[in-house]
């Protein structure tokens, strides 16, 4: 177990040494190296930290930030890299965005606060790790007791916190976009309803006279039909009366006269 732990320790040291060598190499102010650094695999993740983009410590004064920005922006500017135009443009935009974040006092302060929170969380994590090892009777120090590894642990935590901030920002952006879309759809529905109401009112007004005329015609037709029906009924009563009288007289039969007998 101790041998395995020693092997892991050695592997970590080799990895960390390699990372530092890459950082040292990339810190050389050459156009190609800076463009490659800013567009390397996983760059979207690393470039969330503006201090990382400009290769600065979080306590760097603003004047030094400006100087570093000018030197890097000149190196990666598309005009200086005509053979690598597209990548140079991307790198230039990344540097410009990082500088805008640090140039603004409010956003620079928030970035510094991320480093402070990362340090607090790292210290808490180390304390919990030591506490657990002591409870298990296995404590003889932790890797983070070494300054280089402690600094690396904070570096990892800083990247994680910036990633969390970006994820929350994207979630809020999506939520805000959906809310704006919902409001716009509601506005469109209201506009359509108003248009339909206006169209219905317009058609109603235009057809008013036709409806009035139709009603008058209907009323006139109803009156004529009623008069005709009354006349027909009266005529029918008269005819019936005449028939009744005629029937009364035509149905009378006089008595027959019997011959006289002696």
TrEMBL record:
- Region annotated Disordered sits at 176-262
- A Pfam family matched by this chain, by name? DnaJ
Chain intervals with Polar residues compositional bias: 210-221
Mind telling me which InterPro entries this protein's record contains?
DnaJ_domain, DNAJC8, J_dom_sf
Describe the location of the J domain by residue ranges: 49-119
Give the record's GO CC terms.
nucleus
Question: Where is the sequence biased in composition, kind Low complexity?
Answer: 222-239
Here the segments flagged for biased composition (Basic and acidic residues) are: 176-186, 194-209
Q: What is this protein called?
A: J domain-containing protein
Supply the source organism for this entry.
Anopheles christyi
């Amino acid at each position: 177990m101790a041998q395995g732990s020693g092997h892991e320790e050695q592997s970590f040291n080799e990895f960390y040494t390699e990372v530092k060598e890459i950082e040292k190499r990339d810190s050389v102010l050459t156009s190609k190296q800076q463009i490659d650094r800013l567009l390397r695999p996983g760059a979207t993740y690393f470039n969330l930290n503006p201090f990382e983009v400009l290769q600065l410590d979080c306590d760097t004064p603003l004047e030094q930030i400006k100087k570093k920005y000018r030197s890097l922006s000149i190196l990666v500017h598309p005009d200086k890299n005509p053979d690598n135009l597209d990548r140079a443009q991307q790198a230039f935009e990344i540097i410009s965005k990082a500088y805008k974040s640090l140039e603004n006092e409010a956003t620079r302060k928030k970035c510094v606060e991320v480093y402070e929170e990362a340090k607090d969380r790292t210290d808490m994590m180390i304390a919990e790790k030591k506490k657990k090892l002591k409870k298990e009777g296995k404590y003889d120090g932790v890797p983070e007791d070494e300054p280089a590894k402690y600094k690396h642990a904070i570096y990892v935590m800083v990247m994680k916190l910036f990633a969390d901030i970006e994820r929350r920002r994207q979630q809020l952006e999506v939520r805000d976009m959906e809310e704006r879309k919902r409001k716009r759809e509601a506005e469109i529905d209201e506009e359509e309803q108003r248009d339909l109401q206006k169209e219905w009112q317009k058609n109603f007004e235009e057809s008013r006279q036709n409806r009035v005329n139709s009603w008058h015609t209907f009323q006139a037709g109803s009156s004529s039909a009623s008069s005709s029906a009354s006349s027909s009924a009266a005529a029918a009563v008269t005819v019936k009366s005449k028939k009744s009288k005629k029937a009364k007289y035509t149905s009378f039969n006089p008595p027959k006269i019997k011959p006289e007998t002696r």
